[in-house]
Amino acid sequence: MTAEGLIAAVLIVVGALPAGASGALSVAVFPADAFFDLKESLSTGKGWSWVLAALVFSALVRGLALAATLWLLQGRRPPFARLWGRASILVAIAWVAFLPTVALIIAGSALRYAPLIGVGAVFGVATSVVLARRAVRLAADGKGSGASLSASQWLGYAYLIAVTAAAREWLLVHSERPVVALFVLGVAPIHALVLVRWVSGAGGRAARRKPIALALTVVAVVLFLGRAEFDRHLSDPKPAAALRTSPLYLLGGADSTSRSGALSGLDVRSLGWRRRAAVTLSYRGPGRRYRSRDTHQDLGRVARLVGRQIVSKKGRAPGALFGHSQAALIVDRMLDAGVPVPDHVVVVSPPLPYPPIADLPRPKQEGRGDPARDVVQALEAVFKVLHIPRYGIQAPAAPTNLEALVVHPGPVQRLAVWALGDSVWLDRDWRRPGEVNVVALTDHVGAVKDARTIEESRRFFADRPVSSDDRTWRGFLVNAIRYTFQPWRP
Question: N or C: which end of the chain has fewer CB within 10 A?
Fold first, then answer.
């Protein structure tokens, strides 16, 4: 595996391999390295023939590295060619096993839809543990101690990968690619030592007695889901002491309707407005009810339709706007087009104003990422058969179809409330430029009625100072999750 690290270091220097956090799996222990090859081949390939060629080469090289490491660890060494062949077949099996996980993660990253990634992560961890056990059993002709490898051990290793990913990203920002290459070469033996521990069974018994990594992960997930469910169904923010009568415009997100969506259960008195002051903006124009499919149309057109519903005087719009999710992209386009926007805008769970990193070619358009697009469309077809709500990869408003937009807000003040279990950790930088960015420890929908959202929105609307979470413990938590996930996304 040290030789594998040397090859990776050379490829990083020449620019053939990602130098940042997204390339951390390239020198990882099987099956993480096979996962890396599959997701990179799909997301960067220009055709299926290219993907097939890359994966065949991967099977030979990854199988060689795994076989050589296991062969050197054995006392009675079997014929190397046989071990290499079995290891290469196992790498090929890993591609098939990981395909659903990779499809879910690519789709979730491209559409900035975290639930798909959550499901993919569960499948991915289970698949990784099974494959890692199979790899360890290759030692001593299948008589190794692979069965002792626990989910907690694998999660502990995944967190180690996250640490190396964060270090690579930091080095890339503060130095040059050759420095990152030296770091990769230095940590390659550490990955090899992990495999040595797995083969020897060291740590397996302790991990079963004290599954620290698994316990911490489960507790964190349960606490987060409990908080999200509380915010969605039980949270009941109290009305503010003083209530305004100026308009408070409410703009729903994708898949909302005139009567449903994340904002439908919001009591605007908690934000400091009388109920009759609330004005629900329509995706179809003034006085018209809209359906969920209307939220998937071209956002530039929506921005013009929404602008007609905001009362303006001398180029300025009194009142404020409170939106959810996609509303941030609509406000971006309203500002870009010079449409009057209230001076204070709060958007909860906003997406970023540019296309996702995991960008996909548009339908019937050839280019880099063709295979990934095909996989995502196949996943959408499966959802259709299973009667699961589809995510509309071909819709004009889909994140992959967005055009980057640089917005200069001018006099409009904007607050972005990011939900921790959302697209906040799907890109390199989670903050929207030119805005106050705060984090709510809940999910995409629960963030609307989260206590911190309500409190910071009240302060913002009242022109009281609101501190950004760029350098707080909440911002640190976002970055920790981002670096944990970054090696696994395209």
Answer: C
